[in-house]
Amino acid sequence: MQLVVMAAVLAVAGAGRRCSSNCNLTDAIIEVESCIGNVEVRTTICQGQCYHEDLVYISNGYWPEQETCNGEWSYEVQHIPGCPEGITYPVARSCTCAVCNKDHMFCGRYLGDVHRCPSY
């Protein structure tokens, strides 16, 4: 259940957010399943990019360690009126750029388009 909630946090995170490229704590609203159906919960997530140098050429040798926007996470419980059990959801406490943890996330090259903030 907690893994599903975390995936929902990451999927919803970008919707309607201000443009920022730094890794920081951001407010988010996620949908969590409860005994009365889906309910919206306000939480915080880590969002943004970390500085990374990409090599000019592809080498089988040296690859700089990629940093990703990671956070200190905890779980909170919210009780819903009419439900015998509370719902558990993730809350980011702090965010920092740290070396990508290959045990918990994909650390390969991102092959999609990188969206940039508009220049004003």
From TrEMBL:
<dbReference type="InterPro" id="IPR029034">
    <property type="entry name" value="Cystine-knot_cytokine"/>
</dbReference>
<feature type="domain" description="Glycoprotein hormone subunit beta">
    <location>
        <begin position="21"/>
        <end position="111"/>
    </location>
</feature>
<dbReference type="Pfam" id="PF00007">
    <property type="entry name" value="Cys_knot"/>
</dbReference>
<keyword id="KW-0964">Secreted</keyword>
<dbReference type="GO" id="GO:0005179">
    <property type="term" value="F:hormone activity"/>
</dbReference>
<comment type="function">
    <text>Involved in gametogenesis and steroidogenesis.</text>
</comment>
<keyword id="KW-0732">Signal</keyword>
<dbReference type="GO" id="GO:0007186">
    <property type="term" value="P:G protein-coupled receptor signaling pathway"/>
</dbReference>
<feature type="signal peptide">
    <location>
        <begin position="1"/>
        <end position="15"/>
    </location>
</feature>
<dbReference type="GO" id="GO:0005615">
    <property type="term" value="C:extracellular space"/>
</dbReference>
<comment type="subunit">
    <text>Heterodimer of an alpha and a beta chain.</text>
</comment>
<keyword id="KW-0372">Hormone</keyword>
<dbReference type="InterPro" id="IPR001545">
    <property type="entry name" value="Gonadotropin_bsu"/>
</dbReference>
<dbReference type="GO" id="GO:0030728">
    <property type="term" value="P:ovulation"/>
</dbReference>
<comment type="similarity">
    <text>Belongs to the glycoprotein hormones subunit beta family.</text>
</comment>
<protein>
    <submittedName>
        <fullName>Follicle stimulating hormone beta subunit</fullName>
    </submittedName>
</protein>
<dbReference type="GO" id="GO:0005737">
    <property type="term" value="C:cytoplasm"/>
</dbReference>
<keyword id="KW-1015">Disulfide bond</keyword>
<dbReference type="InterPro" id="IPR006208">
    <property type="entry name" value="Glyco_hormone_CN"/>
</dbReference>
